[in-house]
Amino acid sequence: MKTLKIGFFFSGLFFLLACGESPSAEQASATMTPAPAPAAVAVSTDVTTTEEEIASANNQIAEAEEALKAEVMEDSAPTEEVAVEEMDYSNVENPQPKKKVVVKPLRPAEANVEIKESIAKEMDKPVVPVTEPNSDATPPKVKEIIKEIPKVETPAPEVKEEIIPEFNHDAFDVLLKKHVSSVGKVNYQSFKAEEAKLDAYLKTLENTSIASDWSRSKQMAYYINAYNAATIKLILKNWPVKSITDLHGGKPWDVKWVKLGGKTYSLNNIENDILRPKYNDARIHFAVNCAAKSCPPLLNKAWTAGNLNKYLDLQARSFINNPTFNAIKAGNVEISKIFDWYAADFGDITDYLNKYAKVTIDDNAKVQYKEYNWSLNN
């Protein structure tokens, strides 16, 4: 409102100067009422204006400008300088147009954008433009600043490939070498002290399934080790015990508790439902151990795909020629009950024994079977 009044005051004052008269009270009052500006100001060269009147008018113009500046400062709004043309009446006989610098306030929205842009340039950060309500326009300078900011892509989380060690029987091999003698005698008392390690190995077997790309030898080694480790665990779990036949009503081989590859088996399942029918190799009977004195001695190392055939032959030869288990003569043989129980696996027993025996057995030799000693193999 104050600005409007000052504007009307300038219009009236300029008109009076042009006419060469000092404004009366009535005329000054009239200038306070808005009126259309004249299309042109006619300057008469016949009118005389005193220097005092000109100085007074200039002083009033200066005061009005100061008031306008004060008003702008009071509003705390940023300002800009604008050059405008106006008439210079210092020479009343020949007024000349001149340019004058007028300070005017910026619109609030424009001012805010300018302030934010200035701060952004100093801080080297993007700004969020302030625009007029209902306006989607973004000031060009702000667009340029945003455009120059490089995009930072969030890197994808690093995926570490889990390295699963290849399955092996090393842990069982260490235990067998430590607690089993070269002739197959088992020190169950010392084995008991490391039962937790045997449990860990059995857990590994439980979590390992036979893979389709496993060789025949690798599969056989897996099942033979599983049978022997489970038999030792059965003894340790019930330690001290004199014979495996003292457990589970004399039928410990029928109890299903051995977990392999997510399935549960009995010792008989492993031997008679997997090893014998699937791999059809009679030498298996010299590899699996039932914890009895008359059983083929337990090998004091773990079976592997690499040593399987070698040790199957060594075990067969050692067992057949050991007088503790078999008495072989050319015309008469007294052999382990194993050859009787699993006769179907061995075929013609004389022919089979002759493949490993140091003495050649006659075709018509008498064959007898020894009593089986179920005492613990310790």
Structure description:
The structure is a single chain. This protein is mainly α and 378 residues long. The protein has two domains: 2-107, no CATH class; 170-369, no CATH class. Helices cover 43% and strands 10% of the residues. Strand 1 and strand 2 form a beta hairpin.
What number of structural domains do the residues give? Answer: 2
Q: What is the helix fraction of residues, given as a range?
A: 40-55%
- Evaluate the radius of gyration: 57 Å
The strand order across the widest sheet is 5-6-7
Average the pLDDT over all residues and give the rounded result: 79
What is the strand tally? 7
* Beta-strand share of residues: 5-15%
Separation, N- and C-terminal Cα atoms: 116 Å
| SSE-based structural type | mainly alpha
Question: What are the secondary-structure elements, in order, as H or E?
Answer: HHHEEHHHHHHEEHHEEHHHE
Instruction: Extract low-pLDDT stretches.
Output: 1-6, 13-47
| Largest sheet features | 3 strands, mixed
Quaternary class = single chain
Shape: rod-shaped
Question: What's the total helix number?
Answer: 14
Q: Secondary-structure blueprint of this entry?
A:
Blueprint: H1 2-19, H2 25-30, H3 51-74, E1 79-88, E2 96-105, H4 108-123, H5 140-148, H6 170-179, H7 188-192, H8 195-206, H9 216-237, E3 258-260, E4 263-265, H10 267-279, H11 308-320, E5 327-328, E6 332-335, H12 338-341, H13 343-346, H14 349-354, E7 366-369
Parallel strand pairs: 6-7
Antiparallel strand pairs: 1-2, 3-4, 5-6
Kindly list the characteristics that best describe this protein.
single chain; 378 residues; mainly alpha; 3-stranded mixed beta sheet; two-stranded antiparallel sheet; 14 helices; 10% strand
